[in-house]
Amino acid sequence: MSIVPKENVEVIAQSIGINNLSPDVALALAPDVEYRLREVMQEAIKCMRHSRRTRLTADDVDGALNLRNVEPIYGYVSGGPLRFKRAIGHRDLFYIDDKDVEFKDVIEAPLPKAPLDTGIVCHWLAIEGVQPAIPENAPVEVLAAPSDSKKYEQKDDGIPVDIKLPVKHILSRELQLYFDKITELVVSRSDLVIFKEALVSLATDSGLHPLVPYFTCFIADEVSRGLNDYPLLFALMRVVRSLLQNPHMHIEPYLHQLMPSVVTCLVAKRLGNRFADNHWELRDFTANLVASICKRFGHVYNTLQSRLTKTLVNAFLDPKRTLTQHYGAIQGLAALGPSVVRLLVLPNLETYLRLLEPELLLDKQKNEMKRHEAWRVYGALLRVNAFMIGSRCSHFCHLQHPNLSGVPVKESLLCQINAREVWSTWKSNHP
Q1: What's the superkingdom here (predicted)?
Q2: Phi, psi (rounded to 5 degrees) for 137
Q3: Which of 30, 145, 277, 378 could be 230's S-S partner, Cβ–Cβ 3.0 to 4.6 Å?
Q4: Is 137 within 8 Å of 125 (Cβ atoms)?
């Protein structure tokens, strides 16, 4: 039997305008009312415990109702515990002693502020070591360093708390000049011998770690707005390689800023603005760079290679992408190793070649540029197959070819692979 009597259900029904509720219906609703009350109270107790309190308040009940998408209770606040009084002559009847309030005072009282819903707001704590003056951050006067460079604050219990003040990232004059000189060479003088010397300095000097965030931001900005400048893109990728080669730089925290720029130079639709720009070489260079990043930092970021592989596979299998993008994706997948090629490229090779064949033939593709791009993609696929044959034959490297003295089987097989013969074989199987 429910602890909620059916009379309470009838009274509640009358309060909302239902005057003809039958006793049987009220008796059937009473257990469900009890179940809902227990459910709400259990959630309220959870809210109380999460707040590290031992006294249940009206705010806990409102929180439980909010979790159940139920309108909260109005008219009750958690300013203090509710004080119940026992009704005279009734042992189990309690009531809240409400004070008499003048209606005039209620009307003239100012309205309270509307409660705000819980939300999350993002803001900058500091930008390059400098705290912006925004309302969310503490005022500059509060953070002003005292004479002993420390600030103490007294908590309610009297225990002093040491507040660590923000430290501005200050570069030495030498590092600033070094950064300006490197960026100037990258932008305008990447074809000079001094630029090669600068790359060697980036790859070997031990005091350049403070410049890593500045170089990553510089590379990201220049790649995003310089896709039509082929020399600039190639110089930026060479800078990335030098930064990765420097053993004194901890570049792991900045990979999330570098990878989009590197992948852009691999699978972008267009790199450079002239026909003479050899963007194929840039894509080959970037593919090897991507593979070296995955090999070096794959154990630090477990999802790095999987996310990169997914991006390249989507670019490779998307027929709406250009052939230049397909080429970059194929080169990137091939650089990641034979396992990636075997699992992701070879199963889709036959279907892709059917789509590529019309772009290769003169009678079907009249645009010479498109036909040249298709043959580039086909050459990349030939190299992928040759690479797979070489990896399959790697366990026979200790054997000697019977007709080629001193030449291992692996090299002899690779030497016999000819693009023209493979193309003719494929043409015969796909008339």
Answers
A1: Eukaryota
A2: -90, 160
A3: 277
A4: yes
Q: How far apart are the first and last CA of the chain?
A: 83
Q: How many CA atoms lie within 13 A of 112 on its CB side?
A: 6
Q: What is the pLDDT along the chain (431 residues), one digit of tens a residue?
A: 678 888 888 888 888 888 888 888 888 998 998 999 999 999 999 999 998 888 888 888 888 998 888 887 776 665 566 677 888 888 778 877 777 878 888 888 888 787 777 778 787 777 777 777 777 776 655 545 444 444 455 545 555 555 555 555 677 888 889 899 998 888 887 778 888 888 999 999 888 888 888 899 999 999 888 888 888 888 999 999 999 998 888 888 888 888 889 998 888 888 877 666 788 888 899 999 999 998 888 887 888 888 888 888 888 888 888 888 888 888 888 888 888 888 888 888 888 888 888 887 877 777 778 888 888 888 888 887 776 666 555 544 444 444 434 444 334 334 444 444 444 444 444 44
Q: How far apart are CA 62 and CA 43, in angstroms?
A: 10
Task: Report which secondary-structure segment, H or E, holds 236.
Answer: helix 230-245
84 strand-pairing partners: 96
Domains and CATH numbers, the chain: 6-78 (1.10.20.10), 173-398 (1.25.40.770)
Rounded-to-integer distance, Cα 279 and Cα 287, Å: 12
